[in-house]
Amino acid sequence: MIQHHKLDVKAVERLAEKIKPEEDYLFFTYVSMRRNEASFFGQFVNERLTGVLAYTDQLPFPAFAFYGLDYKELQLDLFVSYVRKLLNLHEGIVGGTILSDVDLALFQAAKLTVNEPTAFITMKHEDDQKLLKGDLVERITETEWEACARFLAKSEMNYFSERELQQYPFYAIREGEHYAAVGGFHFYNEMLVELGNIVTEPSFRGKGYAKAITSKLTHVGKAYSPNVYLSVFAQNTIAIHIYKQLGFKVVSNRWITDFSLAAYSIVK
Q1: Which of 4, 57, 91, 143 could serve as 262's disulfide partner, Cβ 3.0–4.6 Å?
Q2: d(Cα 139, Cα 171) in Å, to the nearest integer?
Q3: 134: buried, middle or exposed (CB in 10 Å: 19+, 13-18, 0-12)?
C-alpha cells in the first residue's frame, strides 16, 4: 500500500542525522539551514519510507530537494503529483532541483524532466594561503538592498531570496557610483557557509573583480565556519578556474533540472 504525508519535526530530525553535506549537499541544506522554512513530504510503501521531497517557497521559483531511500519500491510520478496536490500548486507547475546521476536517471525514467539537465558542481575551500587580500571590496549597507537585488536580477542571477540579502553580509566593488561586481551568501551558519550570487558586470570583467569578491567572501565565511562551499555551472570554466586558483576543490558533480509535478492523474 502506498501512502503520502507530510513529515513531522522528529521525522525530519532523524532524517537529518543520516545526511552528509558532500554526499547530498542540496538536501543537507534543506534539513539544516532551510529546515524552518521548508516542508517535507514522504512516500511510504507498506509503511516503509521510500523517498522524501522537500519544498521551499522562499526562492523566485518552486524549489525542491529530493532524497531517495528505496529506489526499487519508489513510485516517483505518483509521489510528485501528490506533493503538488498537498501544496495546492496548479497542474502545470514546474519545479527546479539538483540531482545526482542516479536520481536524474530516476526522474528521466519517470518522464518528469522537462528540459535538458545542466551539469553543476559543488566546491569546498581548502587552502587559505591562496586567497587574495586587499581593501577593494566593501560591504553593502541596509539602504542598498533594493539596488543590489536589481543588479543581481539584471544579471539573471535569480538563485537568491530577499532573506539572504537582509540577513547575510553582501559585498560589492564599485566603479564610480555603480556596482561593478557583487557577491554574498546563500547560507551563513556555523555548520557551513555557502558563497553565492557572485556576478560581475560584463563591461568590467577581466579586472580580477571576481577573485577579489570571492576572496573577501571566503575570508568572511571562514571566520564563521570552517566549512565554506560554493556551487557553479560546470560550463562556466572561467569561474571554476578562478575558484581553483583561490583554493577551492570540487567535491560533487550534480545536475540542475526542471521537472513536472503533474505526471500522474490523481484519482479522487
Answers
A1: 91
A2: 4
A3: exposed
95 burial (CB, 10 Å; 0-12 / 13-18 / 19+) is buried
Contact in structure between 210 and 242 (CB atoms under 8 Å): yes
Helices within the chain (DSSP H only): 9-16, 25-31, 76-86, 101-109, 145-154, 162-167, 209-222, 237-245
- HSE-up of 178 (CA within 13 Å, CB side)? 9
Upper half-sphere CA count for residue 15 (Cβ side, 13 Å): 27
Q: Which residue has 522528529 as its cell numbers?
A: 10
**Which three cell numbers mark 242?**
578562478
- Alpha-carbon distance of 58 to 155, in angstroms, equals 20
What does the pLDDT look like over 233-267, one tens digit per residue? 999 999 999 999 999 999 999 999 999 987 554 44
Q: What is the pTM of this model?
A: 0.88
- Give Cα separations from 98 to 29, 127, 178 (angstroms): 12, 27, 33
Least confident segment among 73-77, 126-130, 142-146: 142-146
Chain centre to alpha carbon of residue 117: 15
Listed residue (181, 183, 188, 193) closest to 230, CA to CA: 193
Q: What is the pLDDT of residue 29?
A: 94
Q: What is the DSSP letter of 128?
A: G
Q: Does the pLDDT value for residue 268 go beyond 60?
A: no
CA distance 55 to 79: 13
Q: Which three cell numbers stand for residue 237?
A: 570554466
Report the share of the chain in percent with pLDDT over 90. Answer: 70
